[in-house]
């Protein structure tokens, strides 16, 4: 009996150990593939980078963590002080004339601060109430009590996997939802008397009207993956209303009116990164207030700076990074906005009136599908890479992380027919032409009133505008132009402080280039006003200081994509002026051209004359010929004559129509096959060549990524032979694999012993814990407020701090986190993009200068700050596949120009490529943008990442290698290989058609993969990792545990099974 | 009724394992056909291991119920193989579960752990339902494996006192 029980136990143990063996064996494979994620979660490490004994050149300038904390707060407060924009200041409402304020609106008490990446979340963060209180301002307790009750209405939802999400039911919505009506959720003051809404019908009695100023804060939440649906929104009750989500709702206007009734004066704070429609509260509006301030989306400490401005502790020097217009539909870009809306179903919208309201919006903005996109999946033109795949036919954007239904995502497109006329460049140029009565600028096309187009009917606050408390003047004194490839424009601006107080002041430099007959003929567009750069200066009361601003001369040139096919400088007068905003600059230029606008005082204009047309000076950059590289991004390339870009030569005839409603057929193109190939990502085919591939399995020639070999001569010159020899040691399997799977975490490769490097998120600074202090976070910048400072020096200062703390104070000893996607430089094409809060401006040069500062500063500290998302990622809707059709002037002078400052002259060493397409080509497949412009013209030597690779059909492995991508972003895994076992015939885990065998026959392909890794490693050599003595693999405890359990259970399973058989045999023998 | 009287505790537990495994297999197909993130995302290895697990499970139960009238080395082999196959069932169910969840982990992480903005768009009711079904499928198959492990600790055949006596006498 005992024997029998033992036998049963043995078979039970066989099952038990066998099951554990099965689970741990497969589990180990899973864990190994997600090694970095597990290491990050458990605080372990699978690689160790041993530093050399040499002293690292990158040292913190801070001696203690307290010093770093102090510096972080100072920078954030400085951003608050310099980034608060006084848009309206009447009746001496500002600086705050009284010591008492009453705060209205939920955002006054709980400001919108974006998602977790945007908000540092330090325990000593200061909000508006705290900052006002700290400044000695009495915050009205009656209103605070009302909003305490309103805020207390919250729903806490248990997270799917622990944690909880708190939703404040009566506050602004923090997410817009993608192309769905946004709810403007603001408690109407008529409800203050209700239970749960303050329960105080007599709230006005609690405010001393004569001595109290009302502050109303209005917020708009949005987020990644979302674009606002323009033209319609939901009110607080949830009803659909024909009101734009960025316009003021009835509840908000009632709130403002109530504040006006209860308080002596009222200030409105705009707490958003998306420009709002605020004509009702601006001058002459039915709900006009005394003061309006833009505060963007502040982070932990900016409110102290904001309050320092509100109270007049410092002068107001912020300026608007975008144009505020009455109706966003007046933007020509809105003619071709987003589109591809979901069906209006009776189930979702049971009310017929609601469906009718939505239909109006859909009629206006819907569209943008190729009429015959199914051709891309047609069996008549099969895709050899996926012969067995049945591709999903839906028109919706698709993605896949082991699920979903991915396809080529070919259906969606937009035509950016506005050309270079984004934001103020449209309004000021049309204004200039209207004043000069040229180009049919006075036509009704584009007018929101139905009458002749009139600037004052459209614009409320111009770009670059901001009021100063202290009276001052800025006057251009001189301009010198060094017209050479690397020359600079140097402008001296005199800033005169006319007040009796010392203070800081903003000086902004604008230019106007001649618009000639040649331009009209060649379709070269010229904005009548171009912001160039700006700076700030402290000036003593009654004194004058000079500000010297420099900017590369190349930014005066315009790109001629039809005739010269390079950058040109027209002959004629180039005008320069210093002005408070684009409109003042436009008036200065008009006056200089003999057309003084009545009611304005023209500022001084300096001229630089170019005697002859020049198409050679900027026809090369970095030794590379500058010429057309992206003709195929233009719809006219595929279907000639279909798109007319907006031109100041005739505003009426060229005003954009909605091309999203046009019937674009792939089949109608004479280049149909090439078009389909581009849409499918068949940019590069791996083909057998006669050239022999060296070191297919890698070879150790003794070149290592370590301090001994990374000499000054090596680090400073990517053409040093070391780099080629280093990457030639990498096997084909790892060279291709490291590009295709090297994002989020790079892996250590055989032979070269390079360190593993991890990346962080966060446009407001590197997220990540601080060594020895998990409760402190230094991602304390505010991208929106930094933009509004108009101070490139402050951007540089932030860049230095970002680099210093990221390199020296984060827990890098385990993670080697020397890369962060730490700023956003995409152009704000329209106000409705869900990630405008991550970007700088509608203006490429303001973006350019801020990017220059942040990237230059961080790289000087040994940190790789990579801006997102290069290449027209200007809408979130359908971002993973939307084709952005543009001409090459727009390409070079708008979105790319924003990146150029940081990545070219700023020396930045990292960048993330856009999710969308350039024309039909996935931006990550675009060798035109990446190899020719970024690497070639800009001389960029750093790493290039994709956005998250979530679709193997949309992102093509071979094409990305060929385009110059150095790392395809995926979940951090230890997976830098095609085949883990170097099995020549095993297909890559994402792109099964790529094998070692196939790649090894294409010498060019392997060369490109190794070349890409060369740039990647070169970038890492500009971090503290240059000081690596050796990179070794270590086994973290979880790895050892799983392996041990797996091995032990396997052995025990075998022993138990054998034991069972033996015992059974013995039992039988006994019987 | 006599049949049920002949069933051992192990067999009953094995039957439960079979049923749970079958439920797991049904969940597999429900997930496969339910609209959501994992629709049409089949895993061949899971199908193979689940079918094999179910068939072997059923086979070993049948072997316990049927008197094969064999003796000697044949009986010895059949008894041993049958017992070991019972252990294999749990291994197969475990493998089915692990191979099933392995390619879905990134998707599940994407749905549950993306940043707040992305979650707002990806955490649709359909995707949540789909991921919950996928997780449930994995868990059910693992439970089936565990139940089968438990069954293996019990005697496969019900104790028969008269037979035991005969054996003892012999």
Can you offer a commentary on this structure?
With 1071 residues, chain A is α/β, with parallel strands linked by helices. In chain A, 30% of the residues lie in helices and 16% in strands. Chain A contains 30 helices and 36 strands. In chain A, strands 2-12-11-8-3-4 form a six-stranded mixed β-sheet, sandwiched between helices. A four-stranded mixed β-sheet of chain A has the order 14-30-32-33. Chain A is globular. The model of chain A has no long low-confidence stretch (mean pLDDT 93). With 170 residues, chain B is mainly α. In chain B, α2 runs antiparallel to α3 and α2 runs antiparallel to α7. The longest helix of chain B is centred in the middle third of the chain and has 30 residues. The radius of gyration of chain B is 21 Å and the shape is elongated. The C terminus of chain B is likely disordered. At the A-B interface, α1 and α30 of A face α4, α5, α6 and α7 of B.
Write the topology of this structure.
The complex is a heterodimer of chains A (1071) and B (170).
Chain A: H1 2-33, H2 35-42, E1 47-51, H3 65-83, E2 85-89, E3 100-104, H4 106-109, H5 128-134, E4 138-139, H6 141-152, E5 154-158, E6 164-168, E7 182-183, E8 212-219, E9 233-234, E10 240-241, H7 250-262, E11 265-271, E12 291-294, H8 302-310, E13 324-325, H9 352-365, E14 413-415, H10 424-435, H11 455-458, E15 459-461, E16 472-481, E17 488-497, E18 503-512, H12 517-522, E19 530-539, E20 544-552, E21 558-560, E22 566-568, E23 572-578, H13 582-592, E24 605-610, E25 620-621, E26 624-625, H14 635-638, H15 651-654, H16 672-680, H17 712-715, H18 721-728, H19 732-740, E27 758-760, H20 783-789, H21 792-808, H22 812-815, E28 817-824, H23 844-860, E29 864-868, E30 883-885, H24 888-893, H25 895-905, E31 910-912, E32 917-918, E33 921-922, H26 927-937, E34 943-948, H27 957-963, E35 967-969, H28 996-999, H29 1003-1020, E36 1028-1033, H30 1037-1070
Helix pairs in contact in A: 1-30, 3-8, 3-20, 3-21, 5-8, 10-13, 18-29, 19-29, 21-23, 23-25
Chain B: H1 2-6, H2 9-33, H3 44-65, H4 72-101, H5 105-113, H6 116-122, H7 125-152, H8 161-169
Helix pairs in contact in B: 2-3, 2-7, 3-4, 4-7
């Amino acid at each position: 009996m005992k024997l029998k029980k033992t036998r049963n136990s043995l078979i039970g143990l066989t099952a038990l150990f066998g099951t554990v063996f099965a689970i741990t064996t497969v589990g180990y494979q899973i864990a190994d593939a997600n090694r970095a994620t597990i290491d990050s979660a458990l605080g372990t490490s699978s690689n160790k980078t041993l530093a050399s004994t040499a002293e690292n050149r990158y040292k913190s300038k801070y001696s203690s963590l307290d010093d770093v904390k102090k510096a972080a707060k100072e920078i954030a407060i400085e951003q608050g002080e310099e980034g608060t924009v006084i848009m309206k200041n009447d009746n001496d409402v500002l600086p705050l004339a009284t010591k008492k304020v009453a705060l209205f609106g939920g955002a006054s008490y709980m400001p919108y601060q974006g998602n977790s990446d945007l908000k540092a979340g330090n325990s000593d963060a200061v909000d508006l109430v705290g900052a006002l209180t700290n400044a000695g301002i009495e915050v009205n307790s009656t209103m605070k009590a009302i909003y305490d009750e309103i805020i207390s209405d919250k729903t806490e939802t248990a997270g799917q996997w622990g944690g909880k999400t708190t939703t404040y039911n009566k506050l602004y919505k923090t997410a817009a939802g993608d192309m769905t009506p946004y709810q403007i959720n603001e408690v109407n003051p008529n409800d203050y008397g209700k239970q749960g809404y303050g329960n105080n019908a007599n709230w006005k009695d609690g405010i001393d009207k004569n001595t109290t100023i009302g502050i109303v804060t209005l917020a708009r939440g949005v987020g990644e993956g979302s674009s606002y649906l323009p033209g319609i929104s939901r009110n607080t009750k949830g009803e659909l209303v024909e009101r734009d989500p960025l316009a003021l709702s009835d509840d908000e206007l009632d709130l403002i009116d109530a504040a006006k009734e209860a308080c002596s004066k009222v200030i409105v704070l705009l707490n958003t990164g998306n420009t709002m429609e605020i004509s009702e509260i601006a001058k002459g509006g039915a709900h006009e207030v005394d003061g309006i301030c833009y505060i963007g989306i502040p982070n932990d400490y900016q409110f102290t700076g904001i309050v320092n401005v509100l109270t007049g502790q410092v002068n107001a020097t912020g300026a608007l990074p975008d144009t505020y217009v009455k109706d966003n539909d007046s933007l020509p870009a809105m003619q071709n906005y987003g589109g591809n809306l979901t069906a209006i179903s009776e189930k979702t919208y049971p009310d017929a009136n609601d469906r009718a309201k939505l239909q109006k919006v859909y009629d206006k903005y819907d569209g943008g599908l190729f009429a015959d996109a199914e051709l891309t999946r047609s069996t008549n033109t099969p895709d050899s890479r996926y012969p067995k795949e049945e591709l999903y036919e839906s028109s919706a954007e698709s993605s896949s992380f082991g699920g979903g239904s991915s396809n080529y995502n070919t259906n969606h497109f937009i035509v950016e027919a506005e050309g270079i006329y984004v934001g103020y460049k449209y309004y000021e140029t049309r204004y200039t032409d209207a004043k000069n009565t040229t180009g049919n600028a006075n036509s009704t096309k584009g007018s929101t009133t139905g009458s002749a187009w009139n600037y004052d009917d459209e614009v409320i606050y111009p770009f670059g505008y901001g009021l100063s408390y202290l009276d001052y003047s800025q006057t251009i004194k001189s301009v010198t132009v060094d017209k050479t490839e690397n020359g600079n424009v140097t402008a001296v601006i005199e800033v005169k402080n006319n007040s009796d107080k010392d203070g800081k002041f903003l000086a902004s430099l604008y230019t106007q280039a001649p618009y000639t007959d040649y331009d009209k003929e060649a379709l070269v567009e010229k904005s009548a006003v171009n912001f160039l750069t700006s700076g700030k200066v402290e000036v003593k009361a009654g004194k004058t200081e000079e500000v010297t601003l420099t900017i590369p001369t190349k930014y005066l040139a315009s790109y001629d994509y039809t005739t010269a096919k390079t950058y040109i400088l027209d002959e004629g007068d180039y005008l320069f002026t210093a002005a408070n905003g684009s409109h003042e600059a436009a008036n200065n230029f008009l006056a200089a051209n003999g057309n003084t606008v009545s009611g304005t005082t023209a500022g001084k204009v300096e001229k630089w004359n170019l005697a002859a047309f020049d198409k050679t000076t900027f026809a090369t950059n970095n030794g590379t010929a500058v010429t057309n590289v992206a003709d195929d991004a233009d719809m006219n390339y595929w279907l000639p004559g279909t798109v007319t870009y907006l031109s100041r030569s005739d505003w009426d005839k060229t005003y954009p129509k909605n091309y999203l409603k046009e019937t674009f057929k792939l089949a109608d193109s004479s280049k149909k096959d090439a078009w389909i190939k581009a849409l499918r990502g068949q940019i590069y085919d791996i083909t057998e060549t006669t050239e022999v591939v060296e070191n297919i399995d890698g070879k150790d020639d003794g070149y290592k990524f370590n301090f001994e070999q990374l000499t000054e001569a090596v680090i400073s010159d990517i053409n040093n032979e070391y780099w080629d020899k280093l990457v030639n040691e990498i096997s084909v399997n790892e060279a291709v694999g490291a590009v295709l799977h090297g994002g989020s975490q790079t892996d250590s490769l055989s032979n070269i012993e390079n360190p593993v490097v991890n990346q962080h998120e966060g446009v407001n600074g590197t997220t990540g814990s601080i060594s020895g202090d998990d409760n402190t976070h230094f991602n304390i910048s505010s991208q929106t407020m930094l933009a509004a400072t108009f101070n490139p020096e402050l951007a540089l200062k932030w860049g230095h701090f970002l680099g210093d703390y990221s390199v020296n104070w984060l827990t890098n000893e385990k993670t080697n986190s020397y890369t962060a996607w730490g700023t956003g430089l995409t152009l704000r094409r329209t106000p409705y993009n869900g990630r405008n809060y991550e970007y700088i401006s509608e203006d490429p040069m303001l973006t350019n200068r801020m990017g220059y500062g942040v990237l230059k500063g961080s790289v000087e500290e040994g940190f790789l700050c990579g801006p997102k998302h290069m290449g027209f990622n200007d809408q979130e809707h359908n971002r993973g596949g939307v084709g952005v059709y543009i001409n090459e002037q727009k390409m070079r002078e708008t979105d790319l120009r924003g990146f150029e400052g940081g990545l070219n002259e700023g020396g930045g060493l990292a960048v993330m490529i856009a999710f969308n397409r350039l024309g039909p080509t996935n931006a990550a497949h675009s060798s035109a943008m990446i190899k020719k412009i970024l690497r070639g013209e800009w001389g960029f030597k750093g790493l290039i990442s994709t956005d998250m690779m979530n679709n193997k059909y949309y992102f093509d492995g071979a094409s990305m290698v060929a385009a110059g991508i150095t790392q395809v972003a995926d979940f951090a895994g230890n997976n830098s290989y095609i085949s883990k076992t170097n099995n020549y015939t095993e297909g890559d885990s994402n792109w099964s058609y790529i094998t070692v065998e196939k790649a090894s026959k294409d010498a060019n392909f392997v060369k490109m993969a190794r070349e890409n890794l060369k740039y990647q490693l070169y970038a890492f050599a500009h971090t503290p990792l240059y000081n690596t003595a050796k990179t070794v693999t270590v086994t973290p405890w979880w790895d050892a545990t799983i392996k041990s359990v797996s091995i032990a259970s396997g052995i025990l399973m075998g022993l138990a099974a054998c034991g069972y058989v033996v015992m059974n045999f013995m039992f039988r023998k006994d019987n | 009724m006599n049949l049920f009287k002949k069933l051992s505790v192990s067999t009953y537990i094995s039957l439960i394992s079979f049923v749970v495994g079958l439920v797991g297999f049904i969940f597999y197909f429900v997930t496969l056909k339910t609209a959501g993130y994992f629709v049409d995302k089949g895993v061949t290895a899971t199908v193979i291991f689940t079918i094999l697990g179910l068939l072997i499970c059923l086979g070993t139960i049948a072997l316990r119920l049927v008197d094969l009238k064999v003796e000697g080395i044949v009986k010895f082999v059949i008894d041993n193989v049958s017992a070991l196959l019972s252990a294999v069932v749990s291994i197969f169910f475990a493998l089915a579960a692990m191979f099933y969840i392995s390619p879905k982990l990134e998707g599940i992480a994407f749905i549950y752990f993306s940043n707040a903005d992305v979650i707002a768009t990806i955490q649709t009711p359909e995707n949540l339902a789909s991921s919950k079904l996928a997780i449930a499928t994995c868990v059910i198959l693992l439970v089936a494996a565990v139940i089968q492990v438990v069954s293996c600790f019990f005697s496969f055949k019900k104790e028969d006192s008269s037979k035991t006596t005969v054996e003892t006498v012999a």
